[in-house]
Design brief:
Elements lengths: L2 E6 L6 H5 L6 E3 L8 H13 L2 E6 L7 H12 L4 E5 L2 E2 L2 E2 L2 H16 L3 E3 L2 H9 L1
Parallel strand pairs: 1-2, 1-3, 3-4, 4-7
Antiparallel strand pairs: 5-6
Helix pairs in contact: 3-4
Length: 129
């Protein structure tokens, strides 16, 4: 069975809970209560072996590692990389400058040959085929 890696914004963002019921394929959710080396190694394995790697970025993003992962995977594995930017997350919104920057990242990801969607329902429809 196909599998999708659910990467991207953490920080109690609920986007993973939104997409899971829409998926008719297996998924790997890297969120764990206590992040350790074993969790990191499992994440690396799942990124490498899943059929799809989804990176969903929301305004709750505080670090930049997910952006680096998106660019790396869109270069190394463009055929299985999917990128989504959700402009709002539980009342929190990106400002114009953040959205401009994320739109530039979208263009890079597309240029690298990966897939970009604007919502999670479209991602589910794409991977469930």
């Amino acid at each position: 069975m196909k599998k999708i890696f659910l990467g991207g914004t953490c920080n109690n963002s609920k986007w993973r809970e939104e997409i899971k019921p829409l998926l008719n394929i297996e998924y790997f959710d890297p969120i764990v209560p206590d992040w350790d080396e074993e969790s990191y190694q499992r994440e690396l394995f799942e990124r490498e072996t899943s059929n799809y790697v989804l990176y969903t970025i929301t305004p709750k993003l505080t670090g930049v590692y997910s952006i680096a992962e998106i660019i790396e995977d869109s270069n190394k594995r463009p055929e299985k990389t999917i990128f989504v930017v959700l402009s709002e997350d539980e009342g929190t919104k990106f400002d114009k400058f953040q959205l401009d920057s994320l739109n530039a990242v979208k263009k890079m990801v597309i240029k690298n040959g990966a897939t970009v969607f604007d919502d999670l329902a479209s991602v589910a429809e794409f991977v469930n085929k």
